[in-house]
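Appendix C: a fully annotated inverse folding record. The material below is reproduced so that readers can follow the format used throughout the book. The structure is listed first as tokens, followed by the designed sequence.
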């Protein structure tokens, strides 16, 4: 069974992150599926909108570390090229491709949207969430920088809130996520599809050509910021191979506090 599903209903496609066992964590295959779907959609003049969602009561638990597990805490030999850089940059390519879609992009969130999933939400034109949903960027608490998502969180929420998210590893309940501007509409846990239908009806009032043209203009504004994909990938790879990630991920696996999370008696 594919971990990335594409189903078309008329002129709208539904893209589903489909790996319930991992709460739809972003595996290499899922990232590739997302990227290829974006490239195809950018060339499809008959497609008006895309709904991005997750399966089985979760949106996306963030990046899958399965591809990185053997590299955690393991420095490279001198002169060796790091394959982690290309892997991490690939997710940055997905985030850019989502923002470059000429169609409207709706994220329908039910359950956790963490790390990379938070980044996906930041790329949407409209976000609907159930009240049980939770949003967070826990990377720094694991000894990792939220490298690829950082520019998109910053662009979505602004500097002050982005710092609160990215530097503290904050989690936000759905109502608070709406208050800070990450979520547009909240719905009860069993009414997501009804709310989504209402949103699609409203979005259909806009002409597709005008939507595409407007999104191109908005993308020009986004394009004034530096492209950090390469720098972010290098920073992530270096951190993953360093001692903090090794300690943080081990503590997470053991459900223990990370070493740097211990309270001290000193006063600042």
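Designed amino acids, in order:
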């Amino acid at each position: 069974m594919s971990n990335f599903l594409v189903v078309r209903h008329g002129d709208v496609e539904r893209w589903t992150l489909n790996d319930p066992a991992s709460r739809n964590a972003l595996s290499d295959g899922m990232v590739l599926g997302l990227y290829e779907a974006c490239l195809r959609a950018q060339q499809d003049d008959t497609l008006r909108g895309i709904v991005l969602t997750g399966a089985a009561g979760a949106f996306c638990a963030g990046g899958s570390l399965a591809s990185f597990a053997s590299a955690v805490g393991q420095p490279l030999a001198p002169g060796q090229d790091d394959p982690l850089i290309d892997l991490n940059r690939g997710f940055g390519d997905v985030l850019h491709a989502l923002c470059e879609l000429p169609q409207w992009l709706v994220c329908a969130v039910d359950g956790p949207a963490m790390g990379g999933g938070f980044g996906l939400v930041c790329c949407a034109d409209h976000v609907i969430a159930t009240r049980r949903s939770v949003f967070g960027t826990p990377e720094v608490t694991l000894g990792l920088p939220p490298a690829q998502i950082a520019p998109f969180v910053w662009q979505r929420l602004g500097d002050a809130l982005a710092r609160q998210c990215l530097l503290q590893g904050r989690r936000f309940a759905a109502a608070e996520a709406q208050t800070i501007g990450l979520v547009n509409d909240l719905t009860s846990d069993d009414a997501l599809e009804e709310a989504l239908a209402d949103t699609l009806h409203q979005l259909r009032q806009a002409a597709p050509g005008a939507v595409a043209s407007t999104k191109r203009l908005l993308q020009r504004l986004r394009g004034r910021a530096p492209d950090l994909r390469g720098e972010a990938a290098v920073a992530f790879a270096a951190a993953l191979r360093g001692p903090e990630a090794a300690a943080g991920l081990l503590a997470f696996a053991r459900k223990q506090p990370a070493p740097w999370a211990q309270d001290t008696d000193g006063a600042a």
